[in-house]
């Protein structure tokens, strides 16, 4: 049994969250770009730029040695500069990524659940995200209570309520 723990994400986690943002952006190996190219893309960079801003919240998973292995975080976007999964002002949009060698071991689900608790504690009623339909992660989101509210050509915007 592999063990990991979840802790709140801090400002000092910016570099690692950047790594996980690259993983999320590069979910399809066929379309993966180098780290620098991903993080130069303003539409991607906006999910992490200036971390940790007021309103940002998230969780980091660490292995037994305290090495970060995955992260999930929420950020608010303005209506005039919406994220891919924007649904409304005040609804944080999530980003999720797990190191490849740690996938399929429950880390992603544990992070999603931890972030939902953080969102509730911060007074949010909903969380949103955008996922490409070909990404199996969509099934994980459905099983964690996310519902598709808008469909694009290849991707869906999903929302869950926070209790
Ligand atoms: C998506 C991602 C975050 C999921 O994290 P994870 O730690 O691998 O997920 P979990 O181990 O918690 O698994 C969640 C469910 O997905 C299933 N799953 C895991 N890997 C899978 C795979 N490669 N194919 C199909 N299903 C898979 C698991 O079986 C599990 O379901 P179960 O609990 O019913 O068994 C992770 O795979 C990842 O970082 N992928 C690349 C980045 C990405 O796609 N981010 C999301 C962008 S929207």
Mean pLDDT: 97
Helix content: 25-40%
CATH superfamily: Gcn5-related N-acetyltransferase (GNAT)
Beta-strand percent range: 25-35%
Q: How many separate domains make up the residues?
A: 1
Cα-based radius of gyration, to the nearest Å: 15 Å
What is the name of the CATH class? Alpha Beta
Encode the helix/strand succession as letters: EHHHEEEHEHEE
Ligand roster: coenzyme A
Low-confidence stretches: none
Tell me which oligomeric state these chains represent: single chain
Q: Based on CA inertia axes, which overall geometry fits?
A: globular
Strands of the widest sheet, in order across it, are 1-2-3-4
- Total helices: the number is 5
Distance between the termini: 30 Å
CATH fold call: Aminopeptidase
Give the biggest sheet: 4 strands, antiparallel
Provide structural commentary.
The chain has 5 helices and 7 strands; from the N terminus they run βαααβββαβαββ. The strands form 2 sheets. It has a 4-stranded antiparallel β-sheet, with helices on both faces. The chain is globular. The termini are far apart. The relative contact order is 0.17. The mean pLDDT is 97. Coenzyme A binds next to helix 1, strand 4, helix 4 and helix 5. Coenzyme A (COA) binds next to helix 1, strand 4, helix 4 and helix 5.
């Amino acid at each position: 049994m592999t063990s990991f723990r979840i802790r709140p994400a801090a400002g000092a986690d910016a570099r690692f969250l950047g790594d996980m943002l690259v993983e999320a952006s590069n979910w399809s190996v066929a379309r993966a770009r180098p780290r620098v190219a991903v993080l130069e893309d303003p539409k991607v960079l906006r999910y992490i730029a200036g971390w940790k801003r007021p309103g940002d919240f998230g969780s980091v998973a660490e292995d037994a040695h305290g090495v970060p292995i995955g992260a999930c975080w929420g950020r608010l976007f303005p209506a005039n500069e919406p994220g891919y999964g924007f649904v409304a002002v005040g609804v944080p949009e999530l980003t999720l990524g797990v190191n490849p060698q740690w996938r399929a071991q429950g880390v992603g689900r544990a992070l999603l659940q931890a972030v939902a608790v953080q969102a509730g504690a911060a007074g949010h009623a909903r969380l949103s995200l955008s996922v490409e339909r070909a990404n199996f992660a969509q099934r994980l989101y459905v099983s964690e209570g996310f519902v598709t509210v808008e469909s694009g050509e290849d991707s869906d915007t999903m929302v869950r309520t926070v209790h």
